[in-house]
Amino acid sequence: MTPHKRSIVSNGFVRSGYGDMHAHRNALMMEEHVAMLRAHDMIDETMAINLLEPLHKCWAYTEEYLKTHPEYTGVQPEMTAYTTAMRHKKERDVEMAKFVADLEAGRIDEWGDPIGSDEDSASENAKNSRCSSTSTDTDRNTASPLTSPADPLTITIRPPPKMLSNNPAQSDSPGSDLTWPSSSCSASSSSKSSPKSQSQPQSQSPSQGRKRKYRVEPLAPLPGGEDYCQYKYYQLLAICRDRNIHCPGDTQEVRNLLIQDDINIARGLPRDVSRTWHGKRKYKTEVPEELKGGSCSGGSDGKTSAKV
Question: Which residues, other chains included, contact 120 with Cβ-Cβ below 8 Å and sequence gap of 6+?
């Protein structure tokens, strides 16, 4: 009987007594893992020596090493149940989807801080109730009366990029840079108006529960064109339905869509036509008499069935 050939593997001593390769592969993978951790200075030399000990031996940390790491208890925390983990994942997905929607709409910045003022809150709440019927944030905010902030902030309004695509004259509009008085001006005027305000602190933090709504800058119409400022929110929606225009957003956003549609018709540009067929559904608010049958700025009729 020929003698068994001696193994030429460098760390063959870590192999089990049955001659399988399980312990050998584990030792090689651990060696690569420890080398990577040491290269990135994530563990010290003592930890590296302990990790390189053969796994088939009775492995344990030394008392000297455990004294330097008092946070180690040796007890693994209980793993979260699968259903609980999936529920947490869905909650995070909903929060992330809301964050992305608010960021794209301009209501918050990339850090999650709100942008803009509180105007057009009624139409914004109506929009939120249509888009998310299961959300209860709007009900909580409107259930209790909220005090307005004592110090208005200085805010410069920038329009969304989509509103400036086909209107080069937007930068010349008188409302391109709207600012509100700073907190220092309001504090000085209030201190001069009444003697009681001098004894009170001038800076008061706004209510934490109040959400500041973003402000949309009005789009400049064509010379002699309609600005739709005299029409209310539901009248504007009726005009959009009559002209078959997709109309999401609050009051000023719908006005901007109508003004942009007038500009596109006058310049022969493609229109943002809705492909939704309203059918025979009846609405309480009708189109104003002077705007029935198409756009206000001349050009072709506002009713079409597809993009031209």
Answer: 213, 215, 216, 250, 251, 252
Within the chain, strands assigned E span none
Between CA 194 and CA 30 the distance in angstroms is 76
Over the stretch 167-212, which tens digit does the pLDDT of each residue have? Answer: 544 444 444 444 454 444 444 444 444 444 444 445 455 555 555 5
Residue type for position 147: T
Give Cα separations from 13 to 29, 35, 104 (angstroms). 16, 20, 61
Q: Over 70: is that where the pLDDT of 77 sits?
A: yes
- Judged against a pLDDT cut of 60, whether residue 26 lies above it is answered with yes
Question: What whole-number distance in Å separates Cα of residue 112 and Cα of residue 272?
Answer: 30
Residue whose tokens read 């001069």: 192
Say how many C-beta atoms besides its own lie within 10 A of residue 138's C-beta. Answer: 16
What pTM did the predictor assign?
0.29
269: Cα within 13 Å, side-chain hemisphere: 11
The Cα 112–Cα 251 span in angstroms is 24
Number of CB atoms found within 10 A of residue 233's CB = 18
3 state DSSP class of 25: helix
Distances from the Cα of 226 to the Cα of 130, 209, 296, angstroms: 28, 38, 6
How much helix, strand and coil, in percent to the nearest 5, is found in the chain? Answer: 40, 0, 55
Nearest to 137 by CA among 128, 148, 127, 147: 128
Q: Which two tokens stand for residue 138?
A: 């709007």
